[in-house]
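Much of what follows relies on a compact textual record of a protein's fold. With that in mind, consider the following protein and its fold in C-alpha cell form.
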Amino acid sequence: MAITINIYYTGKGNSAKLFAEEMLSQGIVDEIRKKEGNLRYDYFIPLNDPETVLLIDSWEDQSAIDRHHASPTMGKIASLRDKYDLHMRVERYVSDSSGLPEKDKEFIRN
C-alpha cells in the first residue's frame, strides 16, 4: 500500500520556487530519492498559481515515511522552509491496490 503526500508550499513572490531549486542544488532531493521506501519525490508549479510549488512525495508504506521523518534530512528541509518562510497545505492519499478500473481505461490515451 503506497502512500502519496501532496504538499503545496506557498510563500511571498518566488520563495517557494527558490526553496525547491535549493533542495535540488544542495542534493537533498537526490538524498531523499535514494532512501529505502521512497517511490517518488518531484516538484511542480501549478499553472494557475505560480507562487506555489507542489511536491508529490510517495512512499512504500508508513514505516518508510516514519524513517524519513526521523532522519537528519528532515532538519535540512525544515531549515530551508524557515529560510524561505513557507507555509504548507498537505493532502494524503493511500493507493488502491486494485488498479485502474476497466471502465476508466477507455478514457486513457496511450
Observations:
- The first helix runs from residue 15 to 25.
- Residues 21 and 43 are 9 Å apart (CA to CA).
- Strands lie at 3-10, 38-44, 52-59, 87-94.
- The radius of gyration is 16 Å.
